[in-house]
Amino acid sequence: MAELYDGVDLELDRAHSARMYDYYLGGTTNFPADREAAGRAVEIFPSVRAAAQINRRFMHRSTRLLARSGMTQFLDIGTGIPTSPNLHEVVQAERPEARVVYTDNDPIVLAHARALLQSHPAGRTAYLQADVTDPAALLAAPELLRTLDLTRPVALSLNALLHFVPDDRGAHAVVERLKAALPSGSTLAVTHATPDFDPEAIARLASTYRAAGTAGQARTRAEIARFFDGWELLEPGITPTQRWCPDAEELAAEATDRQASCYAGVARKP
Angle of helix 199-211 relative to helix 32-44, nearest 10 degrees? Predict the structure, then answer.
């Protein structure tokens, strides 16, 4: 039976990808259905916890570098359960005036959204419940329009999200719609699971997610590159996630491409 918390139906009887991700990161905002599905995923792909950590470190690095390059507006779609430091904390440590909008379609993220709203006084954050497969509604949301100026560059983050949007739900069309709404100078950051390094394990992992009620599609490097069409990739291009501008923390982790089984890239709109 689904339960209610602060008026939000948490759907505790089914696994959610955000709560499974929280489990991989060692969080506590997960429930029996999530842990059961995550446990099966770990059995099939033991590196899934490492992959989650690798992805998180990429988010920190790429966000920090974009903030240092002058970006002050960020749209993070598929936010997940708050885990400090959150994106706005990383951004506002560099640019206190930065504005950040978070979105997710998992009901539990809404229940914890207050953790995403602790903005630096000079900046602003907002949260909206939205589904990336309805980009028109997302872009028209009052919470977004009150926070971001879409006539000025926006850093769009689609980290660990698009592999949950299979082709039959229009993944590439969704991304093109989001890209078209942003002005010149905007950026797009993507991390995406791939079968390129361990195809059998990733295929079984996708089947596990589907059995738990979550659609998914790992994509090859060439398929992921399509999401950046028309935009200029920043160095070092599309790489295994841990190889994208690694810092001392990432180098110390000594993660392999197979452990990550994920590509990352950041591009700028001409």
Answer: 160
Q: Which residues of the chain have pLDDT under 70?
A: 1-10
Peptide bond into 195 cis (omega under 30): no
| Whole-angstrom distance, CA of residue 229 vs CA of residue 215 | 24
- Quote the domain boundaries for residue 58: 4-268
HSE (side-chain half, CA atoms, 13 Å) at 199:
4
The HSE-up count of residue 100 (CA atoms within 13 Å, CB side) is 30
Residue 229 CB: number of other CB atoms within 10 A? Answer: 11
Between the CA atoms of 165, 139, 229 and 203, what dihedral angle is there, to the nearest 10 degrees? -10
Axis-axis angle for helices 32-44, 48-68 (nearest 10): 100
Query: At 102, which helix (H) or strand (E)?
Result: strand 99-104
Q: What pLDDT score does 6 carry?
A: 52
Give Rg (Cα) of the chain. 17
Give the number of domains in the chain: 1
- Give the domain CATH number at 258: 3.40.50.150
* Lookup: tokens for 80: 């997940």
CA distances from 268 to 90, 114, 201, 233 (A): 20, 31, 33, 6
